[in-house]
Structures are given as C-alpha cells and as structure tokens.
Amino acid sequence: MPETTPTGLTRLAFGGDYNPEQWPESVWQEDVRLMREAGVTMVSVGIFSWALLEPTHGVYDFGWLDRLLDLLHENGVRVDLGTSTVAPPVWFYREHPEALPVTPAGVRYEFGSRAAICHSNADYRAAAADITTRLAERYADHPALAMWHVHNEYGVPVSACYCDSCTAHFRRWLESTYGTVDSVNEAWGTAFWGQRYTDFEQINPPRATPTVGNPAQALDYKRFADATMRENFVMERDILHRLSPGIPVTTNFMTALSQCDSVDYWAWGREVDIVTNDHYLITDGRRTHVNLAMAADLTRSVAGGAPWLLLEHSTSGINWQARNPAKAPGQMARNSLGHVARGSDGAMFFQWRQSRRGAEKFHSAMVPHGGTDTRVWREVVELGASLDSLSTVRGTRTQGDVAVLWDWHSWWAQNLAWRPSEDHDPRERADAFYEALYDRHLTVDFAHPEADLSRYPLVVVPALYLMTEAAGRNVTAYVENGGTLVVSFFSGIVDEHDAVHEGAYPGPLRDVLGLTIEEFSPLLQGQLARITGPDGSELAGDVWTEFVVPRGAETVWTYADGLTAGHPAVTRNRLGEGTAWYVSTRLGAEGLDALLGWAVEDARIAPHVDLPRDVELVRRTGESGTYLFAINHTASDAKVPLEAHGTELLTGERAAGRIEVPAGAVRVVRLDG
Ligand code: GAL
C-alpha cells in the first residue's frame, strides 16, 4: 500500500516548486543554503523538465537530476518528484503534431507554451509512459524521494480536445457507457432538432455549430474529457506504484478556481494517494481569505476529511490576473496558516526562486528578484520557523460543522448555453452561501449530493441544477431523520442527462420542500424583487424569482411586488423529524444571514463565540491534541475566548481563559488535556 503522507517527512511540508534548470549549478549551492536558513522541508522538482531529461528522442540525460537530488538529500530536503509529462519536448511534437490539441472550431494549438496535450493521443500516452517508467526506475530508491507528482494541474489550460483521435475515443466511450446508439439518442434527446444517430461512427465531439448544440452531448463530452485525463493519470500512477512501491503519488488539483471547472475532483480524490492543491488569491475586490478558506475546505472534503497538502500558493503577487497586487505584510503567513488550519499538512509555494526569464518572471517567489534583503524573504524565514513549531499538528483533522452540497457535473450542466438567465451563476451562489456560513464562524465540509449527510445538523444547497433521483432521496431521508436543509433556487431541475425531471419542478426536491414551482421568472438587470418577512420587515432579491406553489410548506417571506407578487419567496417545510427551507430569489448578504439564522436555530447549532466576522477560528484534532487556529484578518487586536488552558505554539506562551490575537496575526493554541 502506498503511504498517504510524503515519505520520510516528519514535519509539515514547507518549500516550493524548485526549477533549478533555469540557473547555473553554482546557484544551486546558494539555493540549498537558503533552504536550510528558511527551514525548507520539501521541494517539487522536475515538473517541466522532460526536454532536459530526454533532449532528443530516446537520448536521456539524468545526470543533472542525479546531482540535484543528491544535493537536496545532503541538505535534508525531501523531494516531490515530477514526472514532467505536462511539458512534452519539441521533438515529440515534431514527430507527432497530432498530439497538439484542437479547439471546438478546429484550430490546432502550437508548441511553445505548456500543457498543449491531446489526452486521447496514443503517441503521447506511450511517450508519457516511457519517461515515467525511466524516472521511476532511476529514482524509486533515491533517499530524497518523498512523493511522485504526476503531470501538473490536469485540465489547465486545455480542458478538452476536439481532434479526430478524440472523436474515435469518444465513440468508444459512448459505446461502453450506453451500449447502443439508441440509448445515446434517448439520453441526449436527439428527437429534438432532428439530431438522431443510427451509428456510433456518426457521432462527433460537440464542435462549433451555427447555434446552440445538443446540451446532453456537451455534458457527456465534459465527462469524457475528464475521464480521459484521469485514464492518463491512472496509467502513470500505476507505473509508479509498480516500480516505486510505497511512495505516494499525487497530482496537484485546483479545486476552487473556476479556470479549472473541467475536472470532477470527487472522482480524482479517489485516485490519488495524497490530495494536493494549488491556490491563488483571486483579487476581484472580495475578501480573498474567504475564497481561500472555501478552497481549503473543498480540498479537505475531496480528501474525505483526511489531511491534504497545499502544494502551491504565492508569497506575494501573482502575474496572470489583470491586476496583481502584492500581499500585505503578514498576509502570506495568514494565507499559509489558513490552509494549515483547514487540514493542509504544510504550505508550499510556486516557486522557490523567482525566474528572470519566461512567462512567469513577474510572479512572486520565496527568493524574490531582490534577494534576501527583502520583506518577502524575511517573512518566508519567519513562516518556516512558525511551521516548525506546529510540527505536531501534522496528521490531525479539521471537522466541518455543516455541509454544503457540491457537484462538478451540476456545474458543468448549468453553465451550458440557453438557460433562463445568464445572470444566475452557480459559483456566485456557492460563494455567497459559503461566505454567510464563514461569517458565522462555521466550518464547512463540502459533500457530494449522494454522500452520507447524517452527521451534519445543517446541509446547504446553494445551486444544484442537476440532481439525480438518488440525490433527491438522499436529502429527503436526511430531513426525515432530523436534518435541517436549506435549498436555493433552480435546484433539482434536471437529471444526469440534462433532461428536466418528470412532473412539476423541482422534481426530486418536491416532497422534501413541500412545494412545486410553476414557472421561473428571472429579473432583468438592475431589477429588484421586494420581499416581506413575517414581522413586516422588507428585503430585496435580484436576478431570479419563481411562481412557487406551497404544497405543505409554510410561507415565511412573500414577494411584495412584480409578477410573482403574493407568491412565497422563502418557505419552510417540516418533514419527519427535520425541516427544509427554500429560497426562490437571489438574496444578498443580509437576506442570507437572516435565512441561515433561522436554519441554524432549527438545526440547534449553538451560536459561536461573539467575534468579528474576519477573525477566523478553526480547529484541528487528532492523537497529538486539539489545536485552535485563530487568524485575525482585521486591523484591530482581538481577544478569542478559550474553553480550556493551553499553549500558544508560535510564541510559546501559556494561554488561559482567552488569547490575544494581534491585528493581522495568527495564533495557534494547543489545548491541554
Ligand atoms: C499554477 C501552476 C504553476 C505556476 C503557477 C503560477 O497553476 O501549476 O506551474 O504556473 O500556477 O501561479
């Protein structure tokens, strides 16, 4: 059995992507000296090195990598070794130009960037298997080897290819999924617009069409492309397991970025030995630490609650957004420790030394262009010391207080064209509900809609357009058995083939919510729907309204005007031992807070300590104890009450009754007992 933590690592992982091939070997000596100074415990090596390892077809040069791994080992740095298969060399493409991916409009990409790969291409698969085999044979027993890093961020930047190899592969995939072409016709509803097929050989990928193509075909192509990338991961993983037994294999995820919406991480989480994730702050004016917390919670959930590892984030600014602000003093540590609080057994970066050339030279790094007499470097060294003092946190687990249902397949389906309103963005609803829960200091687990929900007092469904009958039965049983459910609009509409469920909306949620919806009535941009609460209070929703007909549910808030005037905006249904809430419009922060306030009461979740919303409190628990992480994102000092005495690990101070967390600082208390 492969291990599920990096082999030989006894402390938290701290380090980054290390690309020393960009520098003369003389710099390597300085690198390892600085790594020791900063307390680096692990680096990721060789992710993009195929062109150096195999400079021409069949000619290999492992000498530099031998020297590098030896040097790292002599300096006590563990190695996460890349298989380099995300960056095939130019000779490979000159021999196999058809391995370059093709867009839906039929344009073939060129060599000269990275990750330009058609994952159906047999020559790519063979070449990837070859370099992986050679790396595994050579380094399986190297004492520095801690973990294998397959490829890099599958699905980014190319999520699907539409070439002829993919066409043939897709037809085989359809045949094994559906058996007969008539089953495909049925699932895709090809009776519509005369799209009926009589042979698998007639079916193509959803290439560019004059107007909207078949949505079920597009949805299946997402599934096919995801499965195809996973086949290639599994192929490399199995080679590594066979030749390098015991060493864990990972590939770095990007769970919460909409750029990587092409990968079903629930499925990928089951294939890797360790879940690893990359996270970058999206600076769109919102609170970046909330998005970070969400990504970390989602990653932990994909890992089934087990410890995971943050394999990449940034020390300061990145370089691929329109505007890339630097991080404020202390922000890097808050970010790194925020991930650790939510289950990461370490904090790694892209990258160790900032590049002077190439596309990412303006991306921050652990060793910046300015060298070691810089704030970034001083903060890196400080973070290394902090992580060292948190070593015993390793292996402990963060547990969620509530669950949010999340399904990439639903997201894929909902983002297809021609929906009632393009202003309804499922990701926006997930963010908004997450933020409302975060502001109540509740730790969120994400759960697949068919997962066991019984341990959660509260389950929130922010946007689940695609929902199977099984998922409907799951949430219904959850409520009958005493759970509290909150469902937001346009959920439970279609089945796994994007076909609208039989009967009135919302098919599999009708019983649990105690209502039907006769019609959707999206609002125009800027239009508001006034809604009136039980005590006469008023709120507004936007984007969406519905003609909801209660069938057992009580109406709590009502539309006060507009087409849906008099219809329920928010309902509550008692079923069995539990309660299900439904909201049919897009509530702002105030409305969501009110709604969740009631739901939290129904769920009998004890109110959390009275703290400013930006003082983040998360716990990790395990054999070595319980750790309370308090992260102060505000500009004022905060006092956090403690339920037990303990030791603050970053300062070594004893703590009783409460702990002071200075503005912008992090404190981690190991509770006694
Ligand atoms: C990641 C990628 C790294 C680097 C980084 C920059 O997505 O894995 O190689 O490009 O972004 O932010």
Automatic annotation (TrEMBL):
GO terms for biological process: galactose metabolic process. Residues 614-671 form the Beta-galactosidase C-terminal domain. The keyword Protein biosynthesis does not apply. Substrate binds at R114, N152, W320. It catalyses: Hydrolysis of terminal non-reducing beta-D-galactose residues in beta-D-galactosides. Its EC number is 3.2.1.23. Residues 17-389 form the Glycoside hydrolase family 42 N-terminal domain. Zn(2+) binds at C118, C161, C163, C166. The active site is at E153 (proton donor), E312 (nucleophile). One of its GO terms (molecular function) is beta-galactosidase activity. It comes from the Bacteria. InterPro entries: Beta_galactosidase_C (IPR013739), Beta_galactosidase_Trimer (IPR013738), Class_I_gatase-like (IPR029062), GH (IPR017853), Glyco_hydro_42 (IPR003476), Glyco_hydro_42_N (IPR013529), Glyco_hydro_b (IPR013780). Residues 401-605 form the Beta-galactosidase trimerisation domain. Keywords: Glycosidase, Hydrolase, Metal-binding, Zinc. GO terms for cellular component: beta-galactosidase complex. Belongs to the glycosyl hydrolase 42 family. PANTHER family: BETA-GALACTOSIDASE GANA. This is Beta-galactosidase.
